[in-house]
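dumping this here before i forget
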Amino acid sequence: MDHATYEERRRGEDREPGYTACGNPDNPSRFAICHPSQYCSSDYFGQCSGGCLSEHNCTELQVCFKEVGENVGTCQHAGNR
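structure:
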């Protein structure tokens, strides 16, 4: 990803479905852009982990599927549920 695209995504602009900001955008050492199928597991440290908390963590063709009683799910294609 080039620097201009990173800066746009850091500010919340031009973010594709599934990409989410995590942490403090004014502190690069504590900021990350979580990719699809990742969620922000530490907003303080800007750390992403595998899985999803909602459809915001998945691509536009996926849904976040959670097993009963689980908080973290997996992104699955909408037709696979």
